[in-house]
Design brief:
Blueprint (H helix, E strand, L loop, with lengths): L5 H14 L3 H5 L2 E9 L2 E4 L1 H14 L2 E9 L3 E9 L6 E10 L2 E9 L2 H10 L3
Parallel strand pairs: 1-6
Antiparallel strand pairs: 1-2, 3-4, 4-5, 5-6
Pfam family, one: SnoaL_2
Protein name: Nuclear transport factor 2 family protein
InterPro entries: NTF2-like_dom_sf, SnoaL-like
């Protein structure tokens, strides 16, 4: 289920671009001073955030949006990603958005599928 709002529209546009391979376009939805908090650490600024996400995005085979909700200033999306190593990687992003730019994102993802896939492949 997806409800529409200004913030949600921005979050969905951003998600569509990075998951469909237009990473440069996706970055236009981020504020220059965006802050992203993830299980792997905190990334400040669009360049740091790009350095964190782009390597993963380059391995992405697909993404299925499960839900999206938002209001005028915040959005929450949940999705499942597919990579060659991890065919089912659940994730969610809670974003603060001002003037159609993501200013803060809290990204959570299940690390267990990746850990198990690396172990099965002999990758540590």
């Amino acid at each position: 289920m997806t409800a529409t709002s200004t913030a949600l529209d921005t979050a969905l546009a951003y998600h569509k671009e990075w998951t469909e391979g237009d990473f440069d376009k996706a970055m236009t939805y981020l504020a220059d001073d965006v802050v992203c908090e993830t299980p792997l650490g905190r990334f400040e600024g669009v360049q740091a955030f790009r350095a964190f996400l782009e390597p993963f995005a380059q391995r992405l085979i697909g993404s299925t949006l499960l839900a999206g909700f938002g209001d005028d200033e915040t959005a929450l999306i949940m999705y499942v990603t597919k990579t060659p190593l991890v065919p089912n990687g659940p994730a969610a992003e809670y974003m603060s958005i001002q003037d159609r730019k993501i200013t803060h994102a809290r990204l959570v993802f299940d690390q267990l599928p990746g850990v198990e896939a690396r172990k099965a492949a002999g990758i540590e």
